[in-house]
Amino acid sequence: MQRACAAALLHNGTTVINNPGRSNDDLAALDIIQKLEAVVNENEDGSLTIKGSEILVSSKVPSSGGDLGKAEINCGESGLSIRMFTPIAALSNQSITINGTGSLVKRPMNFFDEIFPKLGIQILSNNGYLPIKINGPLQANAIKIDGSLSSQFLTGLLFAFAKAVTAPVIITVDNLKSKPYIDLTLQVMAHFGYKVENNNYESFTIHPVNFQPSTINYKVEGDWSGGAFLLVAGAICGNITVTGLDVFSTQADKAILQALIDCGANISIEEKQISFGASMNNRGKPFQFNATDCPDLFPPLVALAAYCNGTTAITGVSRLAHKESNRGLTLQDEFAKMGIEIILQDDLMLVKGGAGIKGATVHSRHDHRIAMACTVAALKANGETVIAEAEAVNKSYPNFYEHLQLLNADVNLEDIK
Predict the structure, then answer these.
(1) Mean per-residue pLDDT for 102-117?
(2) pTM
């Protein structure tokens, strides 16, 4: 949804987005593109019609040279939005302040301090943190970037370069992580007519395109990141069917299917639906999983591993430090309250499951995926579980608890707003 918003913002014409997301991150993206002068209207069928911005022009427009900080966009707590929309906003010759809320203000953004001067963008940051003040326009020069922290920075540059280039330009990338997310970016860009050549994820050649005004229809896929929690719930509790997830998707978190198969979940995967038979009943098989390219799967994987009889090993812990919380430590602390021991060894997480889970009072740490992981783990726990700051799920999956209620889970939403 956020990538579709970015593409619609830059499109020379009108975009109709079907099946739009409604999470806080999605709403932040919609607010950002409107601040950047896209026009957004909601249709009777729930789709959105978006007219692209006229201020995000090519790098041929001279910089205004004005003082920094005349306009402001707020990315909420969305790591993707801050990393994707900041280079896009820099296409403008206007002075713009980029800000955020909550955990986002504590997440490092040194990448922009290093890269933006090479692209002709003036930048003032708060010692590598928000707020960031920029003054473009971006010049699409050949550059080399570090892809080890997050692929989201590259996503932003690919969108911005695709709009700005007047001749082919190459972005070279060292040690790119989360490659499936770049596949998703390239898929959205191709749908909107951009031409980007992927050179084995080591470099990307962006070709200029002469766009004519047009109307583009785009349907947002079901979200595997949120859907992963429902699938784990199905493995733990049994007898549910999940629809709306594309089994041919390029989304990284589709990899949850392999973990479910490896642990022996009673799963049936079809093109239009994923179904579960009887519950694992704490008799799942421990599994090994490399989550380096899909770090958002750590929370649902931990909930799954808690119901597997033995020690599960998950690789990729280094990707968890700069999320909404330090997820490695947060998962260790909160699941310990539920009787599950988690050991962190460098880049490895070991989850000791199968002994049963006890209900407890846990805290989301204001992290949506921690709240969902604790909820799913609680579904067959011995006793009641209370999740403090449970409304954190609104960041990505505002209907999460209601969907569990539809599956007959005993969820009390009295104090959740």
Answers:
(1) 92
(2) 0.90
